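Follow-up to my post from last week.
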Amino acid sequence: MSGGLELEGVEVRYGRVRALHDVQLTVTPGTTTAVLGRNGAGKSSLLRAIAGAVRPSGGHVRWNEDDITRWSADRRARAGVGLVPEGRRIFPDLTVAENLRLGGFALASEELEARMETTAELFPILAERSNQPAGRLSGGQQQMLAIGRALMSRPDLLLLDEPSLGLSPLAVGAVYEQLAALGETTITMLLVEQHIHRALDLADAAVVLSLGQIVASEAPETLAADPRLVSAYLGGGRP
Amino acid sequence: MIQVLINGLLQGANYALLALGYTLVFGVMHLLTLAHGEVFMAAGLLALIIATPTTPLWLAAVIAIAVGAVLSILTDFVSFRPVGYARPIAAAVSTIGLAILILNATLQIRGSSTAVAVPFDIPRTDISIGGTLISMTQVVSLVVAIVVMVATHQFVQRTKWGMAMRAFAHDAETVALLGVPVRRLTVLTLGIAGSLAGLAAFLLAMRIGSVSPLTGLEVGLIGLAVMTIGGLGSLTGAMVAGVGLGVIQSFAAYYGFTGFQAAIPWLLLVLVLLVRPRGLIPTAQA
Amino acid sequence: MIDILTNDALVTLIAIHAIAAIGMNLVYLTGQLNLGQAAFLAIGAYTTAWVDVELGWALVPSLMAGAVAAAIVAFPVAVGANRVRGIYLIMGTLAVGELVRVAIGNIEAVGARQGYFGMEPVSRGGVYAALAVVLVLALLLVASSHGLRMRSIFDDEDAAAAAGVATRRVKIAAVMISAAVVAISGGLLAKWLLFIAPRDFGVGVSFEVALYTLIGGVHSLLGALVGATLITVLIEVLSKVPDLDYVPSALHFLSGWRLVVFGALVIVLMPALPEGLVSRRTGLALSAPFRTLRRRYQSTEEQTHRRAGADLLPPANTAAIALVGITHDFGGVRALNSVDFSVDHGEIVALIGANGAGKTTLIDVVGGRLSCQVGAITLLGSDVTHWRPEMRTRTGLARTFQNVRVFAHLTVEETVRLGWLAARPGGPSSSDVLQLVGLEAHRDVLPGRLTLSQRRHLEIARAVASNPVVVFLDEPSVGMNDDERAELATLVRAIRDLGVAVVVVDHNLDLALGVADRVVVLDFGEIIATGSADDVLHDPRVRRAYLGENEPEEAIGEVEA
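User reply:
Got it. Predicted complex:
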C-alpha cells in the first residue's frame, strides 16, 4: 500500500502521566476515520501527536512513507497534515481574511489568491465577513473559519478535534454538511467527536480509544449498533 | 525653543527605536530580552571601530544595523532556545548573563571604558526653521527615525510575516500547526529588533559624536521603561511613550531640573502603572 | 600573597551578600520577582549610617532602624505590586530602585552624590552574628504556616486562593519582610565599607541580588546561600587571580574576563538548571531530620483546633449551598443562563454536561475565580456572592480543578496541611485526611512523583482538609480506569459520611451511577434535566445533547456573538 497515515507503537507522555500507549493505527488514503472515546481517553493527544503539537516519546508516525516522528509541527503542516484544533483556536484579533491567509502561508501568492476564492465559494459566510475581526464571528462561524483555514494549504490529511464542541444543534448541522462534502473528495480525515452518531454517519472506519490505547476497531455500522458505545459516552457501562 | 524640541524629539526617537525592539520581542514571543541595551551599545561601538575616516555615512549605518541584527539573533540561539520559550523568567535571566557577557567582553577588547569617537566627519550644514538654525544632520536623523518606525509598524500590520507575528503572539502553537516556519519567524523578529537598535546607536553617534561602552545599561533600561509605559506589545504605545519621554526630558533639562533628570522615566513609569496598570495603550495579549 | 581560602574579608562580604540573598528569596518565594532590591539595600545602608553618625546609635538598633525604614517604604510598593503581575511587576520594582537612588543623590544631609561616611565599623563577628540571626528567623518563617502559604503562591496563585490563602495579604507581607532583611544587609554593608554613595546602589546591584536567588534556587534557603557565595567568589576571587602565585600566568587574563566568565556561566546554567543550583528535592532531604518534630507540633495544634469545634453543628433548615439565577456571559456568549441549584447537607449531587456545557464556568463562579455577574450564592445561609475566593473557602466552600492544580513544590503532607490551615474548627486533622484518601505512604513526596489518580486524590484531600460544608469536584474521574473510578466512588461516599455535601461535576454518569443521590444535567448553560441517574440516562434531551441523536424538533437559534 502506498501513502496514507501509519502509527506504530506510539506513546505520548506528559511528565509521569501517560496519555497514549502503544497505539497502532493505519488510515487508508481518502477515507474518514472516527476516533471515539470518553474524556481523557487520549483522543486529542492522538491528533496532536500526528500533527506534531506533541512529540511522541516512543513509536513512529509515518505519513506518505516518510517517518515524520521527529518533524516539527510546521514542517508536517507543509507536508499536507492539517489540524482543526479543539476549541477552534482562531485568531480573534486578526480579520477573517487574515486568518485564512495564515492557513495558506506556505503557498505562492497566485495560488494563495486562488485558494482564497475557492474558500469563499465553499464558505460564503466567511467571504461576507472577511474584513471583520474573527473574534466577532459566532461559534459556528468560527468553527467554519477553523476548517476553512486548515483547508487553505490543501492538506491531504485533515485532523478534526471536536468540531461540534459548544455549538448549537443548528450550527452542528451546518458544520457536518461541510464535512460530508469534504468526505466526497480525496482528502483523508481523522475525526474526534462526542456526537457519536454524527461521526459514525460520516465515517468509513472507526476506532475506540480508552485510557490511551485503541481498544476497538470496527465498521461504523457495527459500532453504532453497539450499546456499549453509548454507555461509554453517557456512562453506566464499560467502554 | 525649537532646538530644545528637536533635541527632545531626537532623544525620544532613540528611546522609541529601542523600545520598539523590546516591544516586538515581547509582543511576539512574550519574552524579555535584557541584553537589548548591550546589543544597542555593541552595534554602535563596533560600527565606529570598524569605520575609517573615509567610510561613507550610509556604510557605517549599515554596519551598525547589521551588527545589531546579528547580536540580537544570537539572543535567540544562546538564551531563548536553550532555555525554552515557555520559561520566561529563566529566559530573562539568561539574557542578563548575555548582557553581562557582551558588556564585559567589549570592555576587555577595548581595554577601557572610554567612549569611541566618530572617525568620520559629521556634515555640519544648517537649515533655518522659523528663524532658528537647525543642523541638517539632526533633521535627516529625525526623518529617518520616523520613517523607519512607521515602516516597522506597517510591516507588522500589513505584510504576511507581520500577520504571522501577530498571530504568533496570540497562539504560537496554532501558528506552527498552520505551517508557518516558526523558527524563521523568531529569528526575523529578533533581527528586526536588533536592526532598530543598531540604527538607534548609529543615530546616537551622529548626534553626540561618540558611543560609550557604558551607554547600553542606562539607555537600555530606559527603553525597557518606555516599552512598559507604552503598554507591553503595543508598537504605537512604544513610539508615543519614547518620543514623549525624550521631549519631557529635554524640556526638563532646559528649565534646570538636572538633579532629577535620571528619575523622569521611572517616575513616569510608576505614575502610568498606578493610573493604567497595563500601560498607555494596553494590548489584548499582555 | 593573599590566600583566598583564609581570606576573612571575602568571607565577611559573602555573609553580607547572603543576608541580601535571603531577603530576595523571601519575596520571590511568593512569585514576586523584585528587581528593585537596590532600593532597600540603599535605604538600609543610609538609614543605618545616618542614625549611627548623627545619633550615635549602636549596631543593633541602627540596623533595626534601617530595616523598619525599608519596610515602611516597601508598604506602598507592595500594595502597588499587587495590582500588577509579571513584567509589569519587574518593571515597577526596577523603577522604585532607580527612584530611590536618584532621590538619595539629592539629599544633602547624607552627602548627596558625593557619598556618606563616618560610621562606626562593624566587626566580623557582628556580621556573622547578624547572618546567623537572620538565617534562623528566615528558616523558622519558611517552615511555619505562613511560610507554607507563601510557597503555595509561588506555584499557583489561583489554587492557593482556592485553598483559603489570603494571597494579597501574604504577598504584601512578603515584600515588606524581604525589604527589611535586605536593608539589614545594606546596613552591614555601610558599616563594612565605611563609605557609601548612590552609585553603589544601581540597577546592576539589583540584578546581582536577584541572581543570588535565581542561580542558587528559590526553593531552599540553602540556594540563597549557595548563590550569594558562588557569585561573590566568582566576582571577587577572579579579580585577585594575578596576585596568587600558584595560578599560572597564562590564566591571569581571567581577572579581567571574570565578568565575561560569569555571564557565560549564567547562560550555560539556566537551560541546565532552570530552578537554580539547589533543587526543592535537596531542600526536602535537608529538612528531613526536623520532620518528626514538626509533625508532633502540628498534630497537637490540629487536635486543639478540632476540639474547639466539637460543639458546632450545621444549622438546620438551611441548604449547604444555594445558587439563584446565576447568569454568566463571556464577551456576548452566554455560558450560564439563570441557573438555580441547591445542595443539602450530606447530599451527593452529580452535575453532568457535555463538553462546553458550562460546568467549569459554574464552578468558577461558585468558587469566586470568576466574579458573579447576575444571581446570588448563599453558603450556609450567608450571602457570599461577592466574597473573595479564600473567604469562601474559609467559610466552608471547597473545590478542585479540572486540570488538577496541585502545588509542584509542596509535598503531599504540606498540601493537605495548607488546606487544613483554612479549616473551620471541628474538622478532621490533616493526618486523618491523608489516611482517608490513602496517601499517607506518600506524604513526603512531591506531586511530580504521583500518578494522575493520586494527584486527583491529593487535590481532593486538600479540599476536604479545609473542613468544608460543600465540596465541588471538577471532572475528578477523567482518565481513570475502572478500578480507580471505583476507588474514587468509595472516597466520595466517605467524604459524604463526614457530613460534607459533595457536588461531582463530570462529563458522564459513570461516577454518578450508584453514588449520586441526584443528577443534574447542564446543556448550553441551562439545567435541562434533574432526577435519578436512570431517569437522566433515558431522557431524550440528554441523549441529544450528548450523542447528537435525532435531529432537533425545532430549530434552536444560535447564540449570536
